[in-house]
Amino acid sequence: MENKEKIGLTEKKYTLLFFLVCSLFLLWAIAITMGDVLNKHFQDVLHISKAKSGLVQFSMFGAYAIMGIPAGMFLKRYGYKNGVQLGLALYAFGALLFIPASNYLSFNLFRVALFILSAGLATLETVAHPFVAALGNEKTSDQRVNFAQGFNGLGAILGPLLGGFFIFNESSNGLDSVKILYSCIAAFIIFYFIIFSVVKVPNLNDPHAEETNSDVQNTNNDTPLYKQKHFIYAVIAQFFNIGAQAGTWAYFINYTVERMKYSETTASYYFSLSLGLMMIGRFVGTYLMKFIKPNILLAAFTLCNVILCVIIAQDLGMISFVSLISLNFFLSVMYPTIFSLGLKNLGNKVHQASSFLVMAMFGGAVFPQLMGKIAEKNIAHSYYLPIVCYAVILLFALKLYKPKSNS
């Protein structure tokens, strides 16, 4: 009992570094949730359908599928610090490309900009998860990742707020405000790149590579990743998790405008409120994991979202809308918990495994387009689709999460 009380979230010597790495979670969340505001804005300004606007998410999450492995290889060879700097450089460059894309009103050029920007986000995610896990004791690694994801939640709140204030309040039907906003973001990311370049990063070992788990017998850290069944199942679960999340976010504003008759600006603020619940959910999840096993908490939150999606699809007015807002509270623990469970007992293959788990975010490229096709006919009924995703996550949480020895 005494040992458990002495183990903190991180160590004093890592305090500044821990804060900086947690800040990365905030920075990429702003970009991802801003993409969901752009989704609706492009429908209006560039006159594209809901299904075609889903290509915004395809461009963003498609970058994750392509960049995951290269980012992992870069991380393994050049380390955490250089990995962060590469991610920030791509992030800034993609944001700067919004200037010509806005000038030419080109949806395709926006997609290129979003792809490059998201390649930076994918790199940051590949690096940041094992990075933050390495900044302390293995016993608190799940809590540490969830705590860092709380900053991701804060960034997710800021994304729609910035988008709603600057983009939907634009007086003209052009994209000048988009250009200005992303130019400012690029400038800040460059500034952050400079700050991070002067910070010293010590040699770190990911605790997942050294952990011993009482649930695992005769675990062989030399076992190839493709034989680590819990890891394979985690990748599959993450694919469906991000698919559900991306689809939910992509059409939140559409649902609010079409079903609740609110303005786009008001809808973006409700979206921000919903993402605020996600941030709260991550801190609540971090606390609850002191008493509840991560996989059990994951299963409980997943089941709650199945129920909420059924209510949303019934189109019951305010009851369905409150359910839509509430989805993000229960989505909160899914990504970091699946990620952390997937990295368990992988020995020196943690970095490579992290790459594949980031690549699994390709689910976010697939499901928004599918939801968009359903949404063209009935926006409420499109929320039946995430239930399929939650069924897969529930199976992982209850049956498939556990590392096993391979004969």
- Determine the CATH superfamily: MFS general substrate transporter like domains
Our estimate of the beta-strand percent is under 5%
Helical content, roughly?
Answer: over 70%
* Count of spatially separate domains: 1
Spans of at least 5 consecutive residues with low confidence: 212-220
So what's the CATH class?
Mainly Alpha
Q: Spell the H/E element sequence.
A: HHHHHHHHHHHHHHHHH
Mean pLDDT: 85
Biggest sheet details:
none
- Distance between the amino and carboxyl termini: 35 Å
The number of helical segments is 17
- Number of beta-strand segments: 0
- Assign the structural class, choosing from mainly alpha, mainly beta, alpha/beta, alpha+beta, or little secondary structure: mainly alpha
CATH topology: Growth Hormone, Chain: A
**What overall geometry do the principal axes of the alpha carbons give?**
globular
CATH-scheme architecture: Up-down Bundle
What is the C-alpha radius of gyration, as a whole number of Å? 20 Å
